[in-house]
């Protein structure tokens, strides 16, 4: 073809129009977009997505389908899928002038990262340019904050992203979470906060619609199968469905006071419990199923820890997950769950029937075993650097001391008889936080909420310690998102300044007696 036969575009590309600069109208994209690492949308008809899946109209009140004959899964019928708000009619996601310009992000300068996406989509069909950029943001930033250990084997990269390449539902869930995480970098009235939230809501509604269809297929398959194994094994796509539910649960947890996470956590539980032999899930499955069960278990424990209801969300999961490279402190979380269950049991039985001291002391033995196992595990885990390995050991020590304090708070007899040195463990946590903050810039911030909170509850009257914990909490929120941590810190402030009347000896009593004021999550 001769140079004269090339028909140049008659209009500037939408990106140059939006930037109000003269476009060179080059093919296949303009040079000015390429120079700034923008994705030039071209010059033809600009396709736009519509409003996505609405939570009104024909999909309003959509429920997760389940086979009625399965008693364990019967609760799924009452779970409503999708309560995200609709996109406003005057804002649509697309490839034209409505596309969000990621390179204008300012707060933490993610422009460099998003300008060169490193994750490509393998699903068929056209994708808007921002999809691969959101995946890059998830890979580089979100995955780091979701994992206990951000090393080369981070499961949110090594497990979840490959699933997203093969499942539209997982992909949409990941994109919803990534967009929501980006939105949280901005004040709520900032235009970019609104735009990223709109993107997140559109992907979430799409994921919820796809999820409802998948659950219908899975439960139909389960009801026709004679196998007693878990639903996670019943079809090749079941793991992807469970992964989507867990990702959407994490997305809702970013909203702090929203209760949407409860729906997804309940759905994950029912997916796991569809089989009458749920313990099979932990015995001989692939890493992916083990990781998903660990995520479900840990989230269940954290979200129920301060509600003081019967902790039934993870009942019937007979074999609790154990520490692995994907959940290095899972043994400590299992002990937290066990301690909480026993504390509630003792409260129901009253002072007339206290738990045997030997049963309580057994928890101390388990805490010591969890510490030893986590240290051994650290020798097998791939860390980015040797310094990261040392920092992880500080985190293990903090969980060790936090669990000792929590057991003593739940069962004061351990404190009274000197079985637990509460003040010594408190000071150890504060010293380890200080050592950790001096070694690296926040890689472990998401792991510090539990030990900081527990140490903080033992700082009544210690103004210096209170300021240290308050500043550390603010650093955690700055580095790994706010979630519900502002309310956690607010509770500590009230606890520190409360004029106790002698009968209230622990934060557990305060949170239990005033649930309307102190319903917070230690995440």
TrEMBL record:
Domain Zn(2)-C6 fungal-type: 12-40
Keywords: DNA-binding, Nucleus, Transcription, Transcription regulation
A GO cellular component annotation in the UniProt record: nucleus
Signal sequence extent: none
Taxonomy, superkingdom: Eukaryota
PROSITE patterns noted in UniProt: ZN2_CY6_FUNGAL_2 (PS50048)
Subcellular location as annotated: Nucleus
Main location (coarse class): nucleus
UniProt keyword annotation of DNA-binding present: yes
PANTHER family: TRANSCRIPTIONAL ACTIVATOR PROTEIN UGA3
Protein name, UniProt field: Zn(2)-C6 fungal-type domain-containing protein
Organism: Penicillium angulare
């Amino acid at each position: 073809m001769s140079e004269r036969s090339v028909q140049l575009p008659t209009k500037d590309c939408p990106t140059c129009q939006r930037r109000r600069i003269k476009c060179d109208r080059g093919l296949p994209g303009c040079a000015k977009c390429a120079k700034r690492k923008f994705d030039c949308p071209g010059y033809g008809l600009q396709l736009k997505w519509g409003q996505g899946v609405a939570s009104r109209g024909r999909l309003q009140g959509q429920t997760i389908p389940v086979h009625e004959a399965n008693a364990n899964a019967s609760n799924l019928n009452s779970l409503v899928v999708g309560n995200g708000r609709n996109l406003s009619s005057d804002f649509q996601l697309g490839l034209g002038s409505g596309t969000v310009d990621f390179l204008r992000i300012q707060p933490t300068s993610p422009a460099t990262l998003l300008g060169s996406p490193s994750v490509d989509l393998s699903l068929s069909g056209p994708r808007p340019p921002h999809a691969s950029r959101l995946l890059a943001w998830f890979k580089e930033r979100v995955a780091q904050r979701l994992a206990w250990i951000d090393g080369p084997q981070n499961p949110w990269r090594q497990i979840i992203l490959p699933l997203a390449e093969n499942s539209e539902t997982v992909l949409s869930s990941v994109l919803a979470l990534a967009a929501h995480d980006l939105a949280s970098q901005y004040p709520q009235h900032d235009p970019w906060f609104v735009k990223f939230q709109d993107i997140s809501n559109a992907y979430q509604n799409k994921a919820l619609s796809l999820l409802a269809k998948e659950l219908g297929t899975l439960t139909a398959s389960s009801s026709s199968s004679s196998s007693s194994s878990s639903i996670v094994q019943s079809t090749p796509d079941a793991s992807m469905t469970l992964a989507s539910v867990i990702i959407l649960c994490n997305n809702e947890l970013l909203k702090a006071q929203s209760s949407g996470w409860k729906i997804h956590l309940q759905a994950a539980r029912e997916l796991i419990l569809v089989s009458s032999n749920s313990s099979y899930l932990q015995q001989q499955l692939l890493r992916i199923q083990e990781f998903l069960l660990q995520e479900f278990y840990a989230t269940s424990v954290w979200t129920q820890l301060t509600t003081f209801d019967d902790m039934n969300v993870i009942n019937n999961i007979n074999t609790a997950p154990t520490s692995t490279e994907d959940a290095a402190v899972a043994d400590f979380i299992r002990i937290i769950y066990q301690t909480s269950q026993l504390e509630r049991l003792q409260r129901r039985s009253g002072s007339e029937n206290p738990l045997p001291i030997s049963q309580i002391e057994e928890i101390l033995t388990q805490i010591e075993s969890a510490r030893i196992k986590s240290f051994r595990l650290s020798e097998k885990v791939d860390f980015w650097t040797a310094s990261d390995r040392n920092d992880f050991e500080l985190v293990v020590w903090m969980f060790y001391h936090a669990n000792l304090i929590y057991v003593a708070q739940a069962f004061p007899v351990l404190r009274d008889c000197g079985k637990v040195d509460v003040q010594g463990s408190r000071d150890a946590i504060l010293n380890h936080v200080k050592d950790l903050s001096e070694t690296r810039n926040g890689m472990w911030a998401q792991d510090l909420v539990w030990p900081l909170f527990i140490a903080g509850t033992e700082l009544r009257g210690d103004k210096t310690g209170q300021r240290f914990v308050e500043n550390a909490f603010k650093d955690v929120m700055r580095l790994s998102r706010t979630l519900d941590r502002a309310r956690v810190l607010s509770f500590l402030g009230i606890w520190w300044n409360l004029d106790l009347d002698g009968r209230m000896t622990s934060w557990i009593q305060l949170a239990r007696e005033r649930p309307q004021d102190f319903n917070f999550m230690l995440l």
